[in-house]
């Protein structure tokens, strides 16, 4: 009950911050999400520091105003406490605390003080919290928030309104909560800022059902707690839904996450997601940049290989401006099946997912596993790059299976999708599941969406992991079977065609055939009558 109440209180804080933005003309503004997420993060880091520092010092824990008690410590005492704070906690000075800003909110130039405080926190913690670009620059934790208000005369009041909302609330009670709690908060925080925008690079939002199925098949229950010291990668990470799910399945402290994404917004949201989910140690591995053109994660000069890869890459996108740069000798091994040509028309429909999929296959360690969302057309295409990729997976015996999902599992696209599972250690027994008939259709705004129940999700996971053949649902096939079916990965093409037989007596057979004859005679008579009626009407029209 406490957790539920606190979750509601946190959502109310987010709503209050959005209301402040609306009051100052930033509602639905392109910069609103930057303000909301950064102010939320400032509050979270402030309270996380308080939580950690109180664990280390009994006097601070018992003090009525811990901030004042902390500020009163000697320089040596402060340094000692700072050294003992956990590595995933921002190091804060007394002047960084929300209570300090609250006490000074009526001073002239408060907006400048507010911004300077956030920027100093970012600078002091840059090595821990900065996101790198593929060009080597560092994207710091905080911007000058007040400067998103165009009228300088309103900035002090804006920052004052924010600090008054933050001081009323504390995160300290929930730092022992686990992934599922923070996943709900994060989704609520970004729900208005992570919409699909017509298939742009890394703007897809992956449904929880897809993320859950991918993680539970890559890391089944039997392996949980046993997997450790592994690397997990997403080359088109977005806000990190897939990475968070697999990290939770493995254990946040048993894995290191790596990502790359061309979107500045998505990289910032992913950083926030990592902070909320106790994965700060992976922030140095977030790269903002073009994965295909400038893959950033390397071991020396070679591309880094990973234990696990998860991805929901964009399906279609115009990459004609850098397509020819990809078609180079150094990329031959990575893009082994080829690079899509530039069409004369509709360049925005270039199949960029084919490149991401090849990049993923190339980036797997020996024995590594991957789960990738692909358009369902990929699993049956009989020519071109799609076919070559499937042939490669079969010939190199690195295919675990495919789950074909229901239509509209993504509310923002009508494209049917499947989840492709790759396992470089799977020598035989490929699982193909047709889950297209599962789910319940609901309205999601102007779109229709299909929702899977928990029982349906669990059915897919259990069937795949047990390698079960279930009538009209799943089939277990060999690599030879797949090659014989022109490398099709559609479960339906492997289902047995069943003919039902009924034992009839001679009289029952005669009666059944007579019934068919009578029905046919009636249909012929009805057709003849209709023909005569049409002729009469046509004759009448000629007479007129």
Provide a descriptive summary of the structure in words.
The chain contains 19 helices and 15 strands. It has 544 residues and is α/β, with parallel strands linked by helices. The chain has three domains: 2-177, Ferritin; 188-494, 3-Layer(aba) Sandwich (Rossmann fold); 503-544. The strands form three sheets. An eleven-stranded mixed sheet has the order 2-1-5-4-3-8-9-11-10-12-15, sandwiched between helices. α7 (110-124) crosses α9 (155-166). It is elongated, with a radius of gyration of 30 Å. Mean pLDDT is 89; it is low at 196-204.
CATH topology value of the largest domain: Rossmann fold
Measured by DSSP, the beta-strand proportion falls in 5-15%
CATH domain class name of the largest domain: Alpha Beta
Helix/strand-derived category reads: alpha/beta
The fourth-level CATH homologous superfamily of the largest domain is Vaccinia Virus protein VP39
Strand order of the largest sheet: 2-1-5-4-3-8-9-11-10-12-15
Largest sheet: 11 strands, mixed
Mean pLDDT: 89
What's the end-to-end separation, in Å? 82 Å
How many domains?
3
Q: Roughly how many Å is the radius of gyration?
A: 30 Å
Total helical segments: 19
């Amino acid at each position: 009950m406490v957790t539920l109440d606190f979750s509601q209180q946190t959502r109310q804080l987010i709503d209050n911050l959005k209301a402040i933005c609306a009051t100052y003309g930033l509602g639905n503004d392109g910069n609103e999400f930057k303000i909301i997420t950064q102010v939320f993060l400032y509050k979270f880091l402030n309270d996380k520091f308080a939580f950690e520092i109180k664990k280390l010092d009994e006097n601070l824990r018992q003090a009525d105003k811990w901030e004042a008690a902390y500020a009163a410590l000697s320089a040596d005492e402060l340094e000692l406490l700072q050294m003992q704070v956990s590595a995933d906690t921002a190091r804060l000075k007394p002047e960084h605390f929300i209570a300090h800003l609250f006490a000074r909110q009526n001073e002239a130039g408060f907006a400048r003080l507010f911004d300077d405080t956030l920027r100093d926190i970012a600078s002091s913690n840059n090595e821990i919290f900065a996101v790198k670009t593929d060009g080597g620059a560092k994207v710091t934790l905080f911007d000058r928030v007040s400067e998103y208000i165009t009228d300088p005369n309103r900035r002090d009041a804006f920052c004052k309104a924010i600090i008054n909302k933050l001081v009323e609330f504390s995160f300290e009670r929930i730092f022992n909560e686990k992934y599922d709690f923070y996943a709900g908060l994060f989704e609520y925080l970004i729900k208005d800022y992570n919409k699909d925008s017509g298939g742009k690079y890394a703007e897809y939002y992956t449904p929880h059902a897809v993320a859950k199925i991918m993680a539970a098949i890559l890391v089944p229950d039997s392996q949980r707690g046993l997997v450790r010291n592994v690397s997990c990668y997403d080359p088109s990470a977005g806000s990190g839904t897939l990475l968070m799910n697999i990290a939770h399945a493995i254990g946040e402290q048993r894995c290191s996450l790596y990502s790359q994404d061309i979107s500045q917004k998505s990289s910032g949201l992913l950083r926030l997601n990592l902070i909320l989910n106790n994965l700060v140690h992976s922030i140095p591995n977030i790269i903002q940049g073009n994965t295909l053109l400038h893959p950033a994660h390397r071991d020396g000069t070679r591309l880094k290989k990973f234990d696990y890869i998860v991805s929901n890459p964009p399906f279609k996108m115009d990459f004609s401006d850098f397509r020819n740069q990809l078609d180079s000798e150094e990329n031959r091994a990575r893009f082994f099946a080829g690079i899509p040509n530039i069409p004369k028309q509709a360049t925005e429909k270039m199949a960029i997912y084919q490149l991401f999929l090849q990049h993923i296959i190339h980036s797997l360690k020996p024995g590594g596993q991957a789960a990738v969302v692909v358009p369902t057309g990929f699993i049956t295409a009989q020519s071109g790059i799609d076919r070559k990729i499937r042939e490669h997976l079969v010939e190199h015996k690195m295919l675990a299976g495919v789950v074909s999902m229901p239509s509209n599992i993504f509310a923002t696209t009508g494209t049917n999708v499947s989840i492709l599972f790759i396992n470089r250690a799977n020598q035989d027994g490929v699982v193909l599941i047709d889950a297209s008939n599962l789910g319940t259709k609901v309205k999601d705004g102007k779109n229709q969406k299909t929702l899977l129940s928990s029982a349906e999700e669990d059915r897919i996971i259990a069937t795949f992991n047990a390698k079960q053949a279930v009538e009209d649902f799943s089939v277990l096939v060999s690599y030879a079977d797949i090659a014989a079916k022109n490398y099709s990965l559609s479960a339906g093409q492997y289902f047995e065609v069943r003919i039902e037989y009924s034992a009839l007596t001679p009289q029952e057979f005669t009666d059944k055939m007579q019934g068919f004859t009578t029905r046919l005679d009636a249909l012929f008579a009805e057709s003849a009558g209709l023909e005569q009626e049409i002729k009469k009407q046509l004759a009448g029209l000629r007479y007129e």
